[in-house]
Every structure is written in structure tokens, then in C-alpha cells.
Amino acid sequence: MAYISGVFNDLSFDSPILSTVYSAVTFLFRVNILWIGLVIFLENKNPSRTLAWLLVLVLIPVIGFFIYILFGRSYRKKRQAKAKILSDSDRMQKAAEVQTGLLEFMDLPNSENPANKRLMQLLLTNAKAPFSMSNEVTVLTNGISKFDRLFGCIRAAKDHIHLEYFIIKDDRIGNELKDLLIQKSNEGVKVRVVFDDVGSLALGKKYLRALKLADIETFAFFKVPLPLFSRDLNYRNHRKIAIIDGEVGFVGGLNIGDEYIGNSEKFEFWRDTHLEIKGEAVYALQTIFLNDWNYVSKQYVQGGRYYPEVRVKNTSLVQIAASGPDSEWKSILQAFYKMISNAVDKIWITTPYLVPEESILMGLKAAALSGIDVKIIIPSQPDHFFVYWASQANIQDLLEAGVKIYQYKNGFIHSKILIVDRLAATVGTANLDIRSMEINFEVNAFLYDVDVIIRLEEDFVQDLEDSLAYEIDVFKKRKVYRRFLEAMGRLVSPLQ
Predict the structure, then answer these.
(1) pTM of the full structure
(2) Is 245 annotated as catalytic?
(3) What's 168's DSSP letter?
(4) Strand 270-271 to strand 412-413: parallel, antiparallel, or no bridges (unpaired)?
(5) Annotation says 373 is catalytic
(6) Is 421 a catalytic residue?
(7) What pLDDT digit, counting tens, does each position of 157-202 carry?
(8) Could you say which of 3.40.630.30, 3.30.870.10, 3.40.50.1010, 1.20.140.10 is the CATH number of the domain covering 86-112+133-315?
(9) Catalytic residue among 414, 433, 449, 463
(10) Is 238 annotated in the active site?
């Protein structure tokens, strides 16, 4: 042992070559630390997040350096994201060229409620989210309902099937989907699939090879060669979109996998919400998909076949808004803020993660303090450790302001719903956390149809019955270890 130690010391300090290498590596490491610190200081507009990252680099420079490499912002990817083929307005113009009249939806429709008109105008301005009136919207409660309807539409497809999902799993549901897609491709239906490279990390080559052999085109979004050592873990495609024949679209919280129908070792039941949309709003979902497809595939797919004539006679006002690092504005975050600030009667929220940006947090507290009925349903058990404890860290402040918070006890709740005053609601892929609001690519449907909103309220009331309310006096007596975990979650959350 002494001999080994002596050799090590000799190599470390007495060898001129190794000493020079050691000095050079140390110098470069320190330069990288200073460079990262400068980038964070100059680029990060959130003071708490900037301070958190700088403290990590100062207090634990070696570990902090590798944490940033793994999870810090990738500015190369951000520039790449902002270069995504066409701007939103250009995309809507291209869609208009193949479907006469789409630009009519860029004019503000009549609305009896001034608050709704302001929300509509906001989404029109910050997300170029077109209005569509001729729609039929069906709320799909939980995975079985969603997959029954989705697979039924896929079986009936005649021209094309477009799928874009954060997670696709190689399990029973995933293979049922794969077999359906192969069958439809063999029938001559064009099938295109976009999946997130990190979210679908476990999707093996065998699964993708089977799709390719059936002439199904698949592309990974923001491909990550070494996911465990990559800064490209950020800017993920969190969207869940399906469009069949340009006539029916699906959007919401459900990915593709057995856990979403409750077949999971971790969760006995998975509570989620999805939408099936027929009509003009499908144009917007189609355009979002094609923009993403053209970006990842380097193709340019367009044409009238993707925007067929609408046959729906129902009247249901819908706006489809996309957001992400390629957006000029944080459109979904701003829309959430506007909905909350517009409320005069009630704000009902279901979210798996309660880590809102400061403006949303303040808006919720101000609403409750002013007498508005603010209710939030969150999970009672975690699916992501740090985000769960970051959520718990916000509970006491909200309870003290009069916000009513409930923990869902019938499994895991993953729905992403915001309902305001029975006048407006939104369902989509965006969570109430920093990652969804600022980093990931998301898509939400904003709904103004009272009948659809009432249907969402019915689900919310049922979820309340399956939940247990947090009591402020009891919560304040929580154990020290829980407070410690909350503090850890709070510290980590700005680093996303």
C-alpha cells in the first residue's frame, strides 16, 4: 500500500509531463466553470434560478459543473429550437393556402364575455392560435376511453395517420398500436410517427425496425446520442397529438403505454384526461404536427389532403395553442395567468405537479384572498421524486391564502386541466411547472363551450370525492424530514 501511495505521489507531483497535464486540465476546468457562470448570469432571466445555479457552481464546483452539463440549459439547442422551419404565422398562412378560409379564424369572434375576448385576443397574438367554430369536442376520461376511441379512429383511417408522443412504450398497448399502424400501412394509409428521444428512451430498435419494414416513417425529436451525459435533455417534445385523415384529432395528457390504463406496478390506477376533436380545430393540430415533422425529418410535407373539408355541424369554439423554446412568447404560461387574473367566481385546477412560476403562484393566492373559490387537485404519491417535494413546498403558502388543495387518493392523477368561471377551460399537455411553461414543447386546447366545460366540471367533482383535503393546522405539524425534503425540492426546482 505504501508502495502504491508512493508511486501515486510520484506520478502526481514529480513527473513534469503529468504535472503539466494536471495544471492544464485544472485551468480548463476553472475556465469552464467561469464560462458557465457567465452564461447563466447573462442569459437566465429568472433571478432565483440564476442565483441557484451560481450557488451550486460556487459551493460545489466539481459536482455543480457536472450537474449543469447534465441538466443545464443547452443554448445550442435553444438556437436550434428557435430556427424550427416556419414561424407560427407562416405555418397558418401555408395552411390557409391549402384550405380556403382558414385565415378567417385569425379575426376575433364575437363573445358576450369581455374576459373571454381578452383571453382569445392574447392567444391570437402570442401563439397565433386561430379560432375555430365548427367543432365537436368529446372529453375522454382515463386511458381506456382514450385508447378505445383512438384505436377505433386508426382502424377507420383511409388516407393518413399522424402521431406525436412524448412517450411510446414497447408493452401491450404500445404493441397493439404498432400492429394497428402496420396493418393500416399495408392497406396503403400513410403513417408518420414522431417520438421524443428521451421520453421514449426505452423504445427499442426492434419496435422501430418493425415499423420501418412496414414503410412507416418514424423520427426522434431532438435526438440525444448519450442521454446520461447530455445537456440536450432539456427542450423535450412533451406533446401528445394524434390526427387521423385530417378530420379527427386527439390531444391531452395521455402517452402510449400500459401504465396509462392502470397496468403498472407503481400505480393501481392512472387518472387522466384527453380530448377527441372533430372539425376545424383539427387543422391547427395538423399544422403543429406537420411543422414538427418537417423539422425533424427535413422534409416539407403539405397539401390539401391534410386539410379536408369540414363536415361537422356542431358549434364549439376552440383555440389550439402551442408553446416551446421556438415561441416568441411563453404563450401557455401567459394564457394561464390571464385566465386566473380574469376569474371572478372560481378557479379549478388539476395538475400532477404544483410548481408554478411566481406570477401564477401570486395570482392563485390573490384570487383566494379576494374570495374566489380556488381548488387544486394534486397526486398523493410521487411519480418524480424532486418535483413531488417541490410541489409539497408550495402547499402551506397556498393554504394560508385560502386556496383549497386536495390530494388524490384513488391512484395517480395526471390530468392537466384549468377551469375558470364556467366560461373558459384548457386541457392539454402543459403541467403547472417551470419545465412545461418555459422549456418543453407543449400544446393545449382552450375551450369556450359551456357544455364541454360542464363535462370537465363533472369529472373534477368526481375527483374531489376521490381526494382528501389538506388541513392547514395538520399540515403545519408535518415532520422535520418532510420539511427537509420540501426544502430540497424547492432548491432543485429552479435548476430545471
Answers:
(1) 0.83
(2) yes
(3) B
(4) parallel
(5) no
(6) yes
(7) 999 999 999 999 999 999 999 999 999 999 999 999 999 998 998 8
(8) 3.30.870.10
(9) 414
(10) yes
